[in-house]
Specification:
elongated, 78% helix, 157 residues, mainly alpha
C-alpha cells in the first residue's frame, strides 16, 4: 500500500500547478478591482453614449477578469485530473461491457468506483473543487475590498 502523502497529487507532482494557480490569482484581483473602480463612473439605469470610453474599458476589464478566472481554474483542474485519464477509460470500458447506459447511471457508477477504489484521490478531488470555488470567492472579495479602499483614499466613495 502506498504511503498516504505519496498518493496526494498536490504534495507531489501537482506542486508546480498549484503554485501557478496561486500566482495567477493576483492579476484577477487587479482586473476585477479595476473594473469595479470604473463602475463607479457608470450609470447602469440608463443608456449613455457620452460615457462610452469608460463603459468600454469596464466591460473589457470585466471580460478579462472572467477569462483569467476561467483559464486559471480550468488549467489547474485539467492538470489535476490528467492523471485519472487511464483510470476513466478503464471504468468507461467496464461500464460499456456491463451495459450501463445513461448519463446519471454512468456518473453514479464512476462516483461509486472512485469512492471504492481511489478514496484518497477522490477526497482530494472534492477538496480541489471546493478550493477552486473558494479561491474565486476570495478573489472577488479582495477585489471589492481593494476598490473600496482606493475609493476611500481618493475621497470619491
Amino acid at each position: 500500500m502506498k504511503k498516504l502523502t505519496s498518493r496526494i497529487h498536490i504534495l507531489n507532482g501537482g506542486r508546480e500547478d498549484y503554485q501557478n494557480f496561486l500566482r495567477n490569482l493576483t492579476p484577477q484581483v487587479l482586473l476585477l478591482s479595476s473594473a469595479l473602480l470604473l463602475s463607479t463612473k457608470l450609470d447602469f439605469k440608463r443608456f449613455d453614449l457620452d460615457n462610452w470610453p469608460v463603459t468600454t474599458a469596464f466591460f473589457i476589464l470585466l471580460a478579462a477578469f472572467g477569462a483569467a478566472a476561467w483559464i486559471n481554474s480550468s488549467n489547474f483542474y485539467r492538470a489535476f485530473t490528467a492523471r485519472f485519464e487511464k483510470w476513466q477509460l478503464k471504468i468507461g470500458k467496464l461500464l460499456d461491457r456491463h451495459g450501463v447506459l445513461g448519463w446519471r447511471r454512468r456518473n453514479a457508477a464512476r462516483l461509486y468506483a472512485g469512492l471504492k477504489k481511489k478514496r484518497v484521490e477522490f477526497l482530494e478531488f472534492l477538496l480541489v473543487i471546493f478550493f477552486l470555488q473558494t479561491a474565486l470567492a476570495i478573489v472577488m472579495a479582495q477585489a471589492i475590498l481593494a476598490a473600496n479602499a482606493i475609493l476611500r483614499v481618493a475621497h470619491v466613495g
